[in-house]
Amino acid sequence: MAPPSALQQSATQSDFDSPPPLVRSSTVPTSLASHHSHHRPDPSHLAPEDAFTSPPQRASAFEYASNGSGNELRPRRLRRKDGGSRSRSRRRKRFQKLLWVKQSYPDNYTDQATFLENLQRNPRVQPYDFWPLVADSTVIVQHVCSVICFVVCFAGIFLERVSPNTVVGLGSFSTVIGWLLWDSWGGEDSGDGADDGLARSRSGRSYRDRREFGPPRRQDSGLGGGASSSHPNASTTSISSVTSANSSTLLLPRHAHSTSVTSLNSATSQTSTNGRRGPNSPSPDSSLKHRASSPLRNSRLNLRLATIKSAVLIYSTLLGLSPILKSLTRSTSSDSIWAMSFWLLAINIFFFDYSTDINPRKSAPVASLSTNAALMASTVLASRLPSTGQVFSLTLFSIEVFGLFPVFRRYARQRSWRYHVILTVLLVLGAGGGVGMILGSGWKTGLAGMVIGCLVSALAMGGCSWWLIGLQKYKNEIYGPWDPARPIIISRRGWDDE
Amino acid sequence: MPDKTRRTYNIAMVSDFFFPQPGGVESHIYQLSSKLMDRGHKVIIITHAYDGRTGIRYLTNGIKVYHVPFLVIYRSSTFPTVFSFFPMFRNIVLRERIEIVHGHASLSSLCHEAILHGRTMGLRTVFTDHSLFGFADAASILTNKLLKFTLSDVDHVICVSHTCKENTVLRASLDPLMVSVIPNAVVAENFRPLSYEPPSKTSTTYNTAHKPNNQASFIHPNPPPPRLHLGPHDTITIVVISRLFYNKGTDLLTAAIPRILENHPNTRFIIAGSGPKAIDLEQMIEQNVLQDRVEMLGPVRHEEVRDVMVRGHIYLHPSLTEAFGTVIVEAASCGLYVVCTQVGGIPEVLPSHMTVFARPEEDDLVAATGRAIAALRAGKVRTELFHEQVKSMYSWTNVAQRTERVYNGICGDISEGEFYGYEAANYPGGNSWSAIRGRSGVQSFALIDRLKRYYGCGIWAGKLFCLCVIIDYLIFVFLEIWFPKNKIDICPDWPRKVLKEKDPRDGVR
Amino acid sequence: MLTTSPHLHIRRPSPTTAEFTVTTRPQMTIPLRLLLALVFLTRLLLGTAVLLLLYSKWTQSPYATPLAVPPAHTPPPLLSTTTLLLNLKTLLATPLGLFLSNLASHTPVWALLPPCLAALYLCLHRVHTTESLLVLRGLGIQTSSTGGTVLTGTSTRFIPTEKICDVLINEAFRGFEVRYYLVVVVDGEEDLVVVFPRLLPGRKIVEAVWRGVRGCLCEGEKDGHEVKS
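Output (structure tokens, whole complex):
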């Protein structure tokens, strides 16, 4: 019989280097709390070590049980005195965690050394730190504040304190500024990406290498202005053929499911890919080797033109729709509208995609639910307004706030931490001040609102972070060999380029 | 009865999963039951009604199967009504004079109900767990809670591998000592290599399995079969038989096959099984133009598995989770060299000279298959000896013997010291710890003790479980009044077999 | 008290004939006979009262046609509906009849009908159930079973020998329990014929009947087989 040592080694050394503390479990589930590694709480419970403890320890345990706990005791039934001695004499060979070996141990023998040796508790949990947590919570604060800003603007228009033209003018102005900013960033980024890819292809590494080691960046995603942000194909249409082919193969293997087809295409037909991808690509037959910068600039221009085109399209569509929207909910009472828009905005806040990844393909499936809820809320709110102009400006504003602004915020955060902080502070101030002005009557209340807003958000961020850190002690994740393994498949669908 | 010391039991196996549905649990129950029948016990099987299988039936060697009419909701699991099974169950138990209720499979609600009612009626209960569960997703959490409920008051639990034991102990917060590890087995006669002439027919199944264990495990009554030689240009066939699901590692397989075939020119694959991932495999074959080197057989019946296996030299098992992995034992029994992923209970199943282990990674799987092919070509592996070795490692007779020891232990027929493994002889006349603990020998049936066990299941769950148990007890009292015991006919027993055994040792190790 | 649990009577008028009767009728004694007579009387009275009640309700309803009273000097023929109706009318004029019509006028139809029907069923319900199996060697088997009410008669079925494939005992789920029952497998029929279908006696009786039937039907074959199902 072959020695099982090799197997044993490979099993024990598998991937867990530090043996976790032995978890003691017992039939009485109250002792579940004893997962914490304090001393044995109740000696009448059996631990794995009891399987072969020496007599003195057992005696003390018995004394304890009979003195203190007052549990029901009953005489030990001894049918066969020789059972113990026989089993003792049997225990000579080492216990092995193998099924095919005929072992000299009973089936219910629990070996202290090997039982649950591969158990991992909270292996992937890294403790949260306070300040990073607070910093991360700014994303939520930003979104909540922008929703508040929107509501404030609506209230202002509804109460006729603010002219709708001001609102929409300011909003559109900021949108244009934001778009210009984003455009300049995007230009820098995709320039980098192209250079990067160029350098790699010049260095003569194979395609597979690049796929494995390439940076997992998707800088050139589809923030194609107005409509294209919700359009998943924007990334491929808007970017130059070279970068898109490159970037789609630069994916990490873990989200290869969604992109397998593209990577397949790009890999199989390296030369003809560019023609198939991106119908507006100006140089369809430019191969990967010839990466001129002119198609890039051309495509940027195209992209801008497309953005402006879609912006104009949306603008005119809204203009046409506004009279219809105005009379949309005339037969519904205002109370229902308020309640409905409250719930819709709540849905927006709760289902918003707060992830900081700017890759639109990975966005959570409920993110579209969030956006849709917000747009519906704005629509029903707008239908309460009396004039067509007001309706138009509120709807346009809502598209800017809920459709475009989140994308910009995400980019700003990605771009620079300072922008992010400035944006957060501005939003908090704006939301606080707006609420103050709507509730009160003038600049004074607005200022007070700003102060209160700052205080409340600081308290909420700090308090929630602290609370979350406090909750971490209840975390008890258990991993072990029984969990389904996560297969590591590197060359998924990659066989065809070998 | 052959002698005074050996006691036979009336056992009811309860599970939602039984024939005509194919599967591992189903054949486990059948094989275990028939071997227990051979050992002189009376075994009945309680399952739910299948299409075309209703009422009460007898299987070949006198196993009685009750197909209880019940609503099936999902993948032949019955609807979990906590109490509705009780009247019927009580009737069956009384008319068959059942002493031990043995439930199988943690997804079977019939089994959980039977264990609960069995305890209420004062029967001994055993539960066999066949599968592994995680702790993370919602479905697992719910199943684990249910399992905890049932296993709070079970006499003993049997798991099919050590990994499965660890998992069950954690899931149900059990005492490890009341969990036994008794592996599955294979019917080695059904999985013979192609060129295999059976040894002299004189040795019966009992004798091979009851060989004194100290002896060497591998006994060749006749000279070992000739070595098989594989030259460097002979074609090596790799067999894969599995349902093509994600958790069976079909993705790994799809990724690895082209690379293996590229690295090793004289190899081919035979893939049997069906499932949602079959289309991926077919796509892979078409993309790589591997139609002549990969053969997809589609679903095969369990009887045909051996015929497929003996066509190959290597068995590849890329599963991602597995409690035991009976199929790799079957493959080894057919004389195949086994390449398998190192997950779940698989590393415990076969000795290292029969297997090549791989991590569940594509590269490692390819490398491991490469090692296996190289070893086969070099003639380092004596695959022709595997069958005899597997036959001596795993037999259902042995499983039945070990299960019988569990029955003896929970019924108090062997002393708790011997059963639970502590040195009872050191405490002459001493008291053991309390009976509430459950695992000390025989569990108390008193309602208050049972309630104590259930109460600890959780803040809310504990109270809910207690409520369920109390209602169950009230139903029991009602049934005792409404359907009195003496009105229930007692079934005649199937003539019991007498076990021909030289030394009826109860603790067969 | 009036009934017992099903018990078996075996009658063997000749060596080739056997009748197995399963009945809930207890041994007849004088007190039991008296009691049964009392029960019969009570049921008769109750039935009449219920019918009267229903009749009075009918007369009060708008659908009823007023009784055309014939001239008093010419009594109608004795056996005619008019006589019957007249008698009913006189009956309704008695104190009991008055009470009943009073009751009928004060109770709505929906409240009156179900109790009346239940009472009628109670009156018509058979106290004892008797089912029997007659075995005639060479001829066949006749099963008979009394109906549920007095109005329905005894249903019998004769199965000739050449159509009988087998007589056996089976088990089946019935309600919340598993019961033994005796079946006759008839050639060319999809369904089995269940013997004693209403009483479904316990295993002891069924087994005794089964042995007897086997013994009587196939003489010479030893009837000490194990119960097969």
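The domain at 224-394 of chain B is CATH 3.40.50.2000 (Rossmann fold).
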